[in-house]
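Weekly structure sync, notes
Attendees: PL (lead), two postdocs, one rotation student
Agenda item 3: pending single-chain targets
PL asked that the sequence for the first pending target be pasted directly into the notes so everyone works from the same version. It is reproduced below exactly as submitted, 357 residues in total.
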Amino acid sequence: MNSDSFIKGRGAQQNTDNKFSAYSYESRDDFLEFCRLEGESADTNKTQYIPIFPKTIVNKVTSTDIGMSYSMNMYQGCEHGCIYCYARNSHEYWGYSAGLDFERKILVKHDAPKLLEAKLKSKSWKACTIVLSGNTDCYQPAEKEFQLTRKCLEVFFKYRHPVGIITKNTLILRDLDILKELNNHGLIGVNISVTSLSEKTRRILEPRTTTIKKRLEAMRVLSSEGIPVNAMLAPIIPGINSHEILNLAKAVSENGAFSMTFTMVRLNGAIGEIFTDWIKKALPDRADKVLHQIQECHGGTLSDSRFGIRGRGEGKIATQIHDMVRLAKHLYFIDKKFPKLNTELHQPFKDGQMKLF
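Predicted structure, written out during the meeting:
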């Protein structure tokens, strides 16, 4: 890795052009030279929190490849900086780049708890698990300051409504008290992402995430309280973490995971350019090999949008990975099962005493 040109603490190493914008990013040599002469930094690399005020917060998921019906996100953009993140492309809809902007311009939905409560009280709404972090991590660093995830969990408990969580941050343990209350009624399921057992790999793939050791500890704490945890081995990237599948499965099982799932990496939209630029800087000796193996899993391209195939991959490499996952499940999860969440309690709590009249 060329440390002189690598932006430490970030995944993306550039701001790609926004396909919806007429403007493009360019670092001109004359500007960089001016900054050098003035002793100024051309890029402060600071994170900005930008308030936004959407009218709704719960999104219906129509993709057949995603195992959820509804999701909600308190934050858009994610400071974790995972280089492979599929959510990067969504930042372009807000007028920003999928590259560094995604990690440094975090949009904060301050009204999220109020909007959620309005949704759960709606006469037309019928209880169905809503997953937090369908797009970006609800326990990313912004949550320390704004606590929107905790406030939303309190709303879910108030109305006895089932909720799922996807995260790779141990900040989730801050809310163990409300998670235990939800679990007493079968209303919570947690998905923890574990991409590698190597800290070196974790640091370059997911620069601002919790360490692997702490993620496994969080899994163990949650499961010891009876809270169901699914381990997400996602994404599997050929040539980077594909050789770790059995060891990953063993580790998460030993730390209490009820089940495990996986997806193949895919680099749609701007992510292909961002990932390619990153790997040539972070892992130059492996860059071409990894990119070619990803292409082999997606019909010769980094960008795969085929429903039913894009998350699974195809070809010899994908088949080998699927075989390894099946073996891992047989070895470490044969007697385990993730429970179905309770949808029967919500209606009385939504209606209150009105049903008497």
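Discussion points:
- The first strand starts at residue 48 and ends at 52.
- The radius of gyration is 21 Å.
Action: rotation student to compare against the earlier draft before next sync.
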